[in-house]
Design a protein that fits this description.
7% helix, FApF, two-stranded antiparallel ribbon, 18 strands, mainly beta, Putative MetA-pathway of phenol degradation, 12-stranded antiparallel barrel
Length: 348
């Protein structure tokens, strides 16, 4: 909690110092700059003018490796004290398609769908009659379309090159929670995979958020906070933990069409409520609902490229590398090594 408070104070100070550079006019916040959109890893960061559409594609890949128990790194031997299987690495990839439309200057609708792939390497340890440990390496994978998200962004204020808007959204449980694969203990049969390998949540969810944006001559930035609540227990008798996010960024326009950005992010997720009766929580750490969620503090470096002329006007490319600054998971989990966000957006 102390780390969250410190980060919040730093982000607030950054916004106050930089936003005061030039906000004395009545000019509106504008979207035709490279830095007008937030770093590509931020969702729901902007609204649109009446009648405007935007289509987007994002690709996110996240690499996880090594083990951490609460606030300290641990070895595989620590895991084998209570579990038969220890995860080694996990790679997640997500393709996201988005659509935004503004029926008025004050209201923008947004919809997002995704296709996710998960790959995990694991090691099983068994002890023979002589007390010798025998390790078996194996892998599991899953893929499919995830939950669909729809939202409304409503502009609250647009004045002096500053803009404030709220977000109310709903998640639809279209993603699978029945992903299966073969393991060394399944005798060649497909069995249900643990929670991190499932594609969807299986629950309806709601998201509430607020975003503040500002612009100066060469600088721009913003801050966003949101919460996501899972509303019901799914068909496998569990509900994912609620999620909380706060982030702030600062961007500089290097040219009329190119900008750099830095961003800080704090994320917290609660443990899973309930459990899937088909999962043995003592077999592998990922099958124990107590080993889910926790605190994550990240920093990120990004860039935006915006086409301002000719037939490509309105097209934007973005890239961002997200790196962990501090991790305190609930229970035992793999550590996040990096997240890479790539994307393109086209407004018309």
């Amino acid at each position: 909690m102390k780390n969250i408070i410190k980060l919040a104070l730093v982000l607030l100070s950054l916004q106050q110092v930089t936003a005061q550079e030039d906000h004395t006019t009545e000019e509106l916040w504008v979207s035709n700059r490279a830095s007008s959109h937030a770093p590509i890893g931020v969702m729901g960061d902007h609204t649109h003018h009446k009648g405007e559409f935007m289509v987007s594609y994002r690709y996110m890949t996240m690499q996880m490796k090594d083990l951490r128990y609460q606030d300290k790194d641990v070895s595989e031997d620590f895991v084998y004290q209570n579990y038969m299987i220890a995860p080694q690495t996990m790679t997640m990839g997500m393709h996201m398609l988005g659509l935004m439309y503004a029926p008025t200057d004050k209201l923008t609708f947004m919809a997002m769908a995704n296709y996710t792939t998960n790959d995990m390497d694991l090691k099983m340890r068994m002890t023979d009659d002589m007390g010798m440990a025998m390790d078996t390496d194996f892998s599991t994978s899953s893929s499919g379309f995830g939950d669909v998200y729809v939202a409304a962004l409503f502009q609250l204020w647009n004045k002096n090159q500053q803009e404030l808007h709220g977000e109310i959204g709903f998640g639809l449980p279209t993603g699978s929670i029945e992903q299966e694969d073969v393991t060394p203990m399944s005798n060649g049969n497909d069995v249900i995979l643990p929670y991190p390998m499932q594609i969807g949540s299986g629950s309806f969810s709601t998201k509430i958020g607020m975003t503040y944006l500002w612009q100066a001559e060469k600088l721009s930035g913003g801050a966003q906070a949101n919460t996501k609540f899972f509303l019901n227990e799914n068909d496998n008798n569990y509900r994912l933990g609620n999620q909380y996010l706060a982030t702030s960024w600062l961007a500089m326009d290097a040219t009329d069409f190119f900008s750099f950005s830095v961003r800080a992010e704090a994320k917290f997720a609660e443990e899973i409520d309930g459990s899937n009766p088909d999962l043995n929580r003592t077999m592998v750490t990922t099958a124990n609902p107590d080993n889910f969620g926790g605190l994550q503090l990240n920093y990120a470096l990004g860039a935006n490229y915006y086409f301002t002329k000719n037939t490509l006007k309105g097209l934007r490319f973005g890239a961002e590398m997200v790196l962990p600054a501090y991790q305190e998971p609930n229970g035992i989990q793999l550590k996040q090594k990096y997240t890479l966000n790539l994307g393109t957006q086209y407004s018309f």
